[in-house]
Amino acid sequence: MASELFFGSSGGIVSALMILLMLFLMTAMSLRLMLSRKKKAYFSLTFSLLLIAVQYAAVVAIGARPDAGDGGAYLVNGLQTLSFIALNVGLYQLYNPTKRKVTFLAYLGTILTLLILGARYYAASELFPDPAAAASVQANAFLNVWMDIYLYALIFFCFYFVTPSVGQTAKYQTALVVYFLTHSAAVLNSYIYDEGATGLRFAEHFLPVVFFFIVFLFIFERVLELMQAVYHSSITDGLTGLYNRRFFMRRLQQYLQGGVAVGVIFTDIDNFKKLNDTKGHQQGDEALRKVASIVLEIAEDIGLGGRYGGEEIVMIVADPKLDPGKVAERLRARVEAEAGVTVSVGWAKYRKGVTAEQLTKQADEAMYVSKKTGKNRVTAYKPGMTAAGLPPLSGPPRASQSLPIE
């Protein structure tokens, strides 16, 4: 009984039922994406999965394998070829926009499949009008071999020309190798061993299960990539790669709720409007990106950086052992040396009872003091500080000097 399920005629039905279960899961994912995002890639993928489901439902219904000798099984073989084309188009479109060349090749492949399928049935009726002669092993081999050769050509085409365009190269190539072995097992078992090789029959039945499991992993990983990309774009600034203001404030609030004595550094690029007006917005954007990259590098292991708005960049120093003032000075010095612009910097340390908004405002006020007292400097926030009521300074501080305000 067990040998019949794995090596006998029932093996094709068992494997088809297993594949149909995976197809149901993949179709559910693809359909959900198609309805929510309305992209051609998801339509193509959903269509191909439904076509494959029809193919394997036919296998279950007629109790035959795609390489069986009768006309019904050959129709299933044609569905297999069409679904292979549609599936690879769908997988390609998951990583690439739909181009006319791809559409043309997909239609060409489909038309060739239908022509081979039609030619097979026409040849069967014209060359072998006698049903007994048409059912012979030699006649079936002559009639069916063309679709098998064509499917080999499609496999090699995808391996060499589609592989470079998909993101999961190793996984995609592994799936194609498994598909090639599956088809080879079916061809050998049909044309050479006359269905008598039990090992080939097992491979023919259950290698497709491995193939569709790899395809399932491929689609699932791509869905995760897309979800991560959507989430990342929702929390980051497209120009600088820094976190956006909303996410920055939310993370700052979380730090404060967790009792972490964070510091906030508030940075504003000096003379940014003049830079935009005299050298153009492209140059201004480039300066902003350079400053942002420095902030990202400094904040990588000690906190996080964000774009507060315009040319204003903020940073959380989450390590309580670090002095935010020293971090701020290191940031100012690096910007001056590497970015071709200077920044005015203010910083504030968390005190009990201060909210995230208040802490950010304190750092902003300290930055404003730097801006009004010479620019390209660092100012530490002190209670009672206002930009309008600065106490007199005893001599001009150095650009790198922090300005303590009592």
Automatic annotation (TrEMBL):
Residues 260-383 form the GGDEF domain. One of its GO terms (molecular function) is diguanylate cyclase activity. GO terms for biological process: cell adhesion involved in single-species biofilm formation; negative regulation of bacterial-type flagellum-dependent cell motility. Keywords: Membrane, Transmembrane, Transmembrane helix. The keyword Transmembrane helix applies. SMART domains: GGDEF. GO terms for cellular component: plasma membrane. Gene3D superfamilies: 3.30.70.270. Residues 386-406 are annotated as: Disordered. The chain crosses the membrane at residues 6-29, 41-62, 74-92, 104-123, 143-162, 174-193, 205-224. PANTHER family: DIGUANYLATE CYCLASE DGCM-RELATED, REGULATORY COMPONENTS OF SENSORY TRANSDUCTION SYSTEM. This is GGDEF domain-containing protein. The lineage of its organism: Bacteria, Bacillati, Bacillota, Bacilli, Bacillales.
